[in-house]
């Protein structure tokens, strides 16, 4: 399956993007280009479901919230992403609007797929870190690991890579703890 790119000669603004009809099809604005992706794979959805349950329960204990795609995160006038999963601490819940998140979540998570690998690793990582997302997680099903990037470490070096039976923890989300191997299907 391939990701569909709109006509690159037609650059959309945020205002034009917001005038599109509501859809459950993954649809993002990246550098002004409308990007539509096919439905995620069963493996992707299994990983997302497992992570969401972990995030949801840990967020409830903090008074924060966890939400999953499709739900827009407004980056700037030319970029609207739909992270697979986001965590917002109680202090950032005010960023939630009826149409999406307007402000950096504490954690943004993307699960790599063959069709989005390049975009998630390059364009989205840059966008998330630029707006001040505290942690950007890249979940890689092919290598069964989770790489965490922070604004302090930048785009080139992950803060930490969790793999195997490592326990995943986050200094900004201390109630979240799980083993990496529990989120990947056998």
UniProtKB/TrEMBL annotation:
Coiled coil: none annotated. InterPro entries: Nuclease_put_TT1808, Restrct_endonuc-II-like, Uma2. Gene3D superfamilies: tt1808, chain A. It comes from Chryseolinea serpens. Residues 14-179 form the Putative restriction endonuclease domain. Pfam families: Uma2. This is Endonuclease, Uma2 family (Restriction endonuclease fold). The keyword rRNA-binding does not apply.
């Amino acid at each position: 399956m391939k990701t569909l790119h709109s006509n690159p000669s037609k650059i959309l603004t945020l205002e034009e993007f917001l005038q599109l009809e509501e859809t459950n099809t993954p649809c993002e604005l990246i550098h002004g280009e409308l990007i539509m992706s096919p439905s995620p794979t069963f493996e992707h959805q299994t990983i997302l479901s497992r992570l969401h349950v972990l995030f949801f329960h840990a967020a409830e204990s903090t008074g924060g919230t966890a939400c999953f795609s499709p739900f827009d995160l407004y980056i700037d006038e030319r970029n609207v992403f739909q992270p697979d999963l986001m965590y917002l601490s109680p202090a950032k819940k005010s960023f939630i609007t009826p149409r999406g998140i307007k402000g950096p979540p504490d954690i943004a998570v993307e699960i790599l797929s063959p069709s989005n690998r390049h975009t998630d690793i390059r364009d989205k990582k840059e966008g998330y870190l630029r707006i001040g997302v505290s942690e950007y997680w890249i979940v890689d099903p092919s290598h069964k690991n989770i790489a965490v990037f922070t604004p302090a470490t930048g785009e080139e070096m992950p803060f930490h890579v969790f793999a195997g039976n490592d326990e995943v923890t986050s200094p900004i989300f201390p109630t979240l703890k799980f083993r990496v191997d529990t989120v990947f299907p056998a």
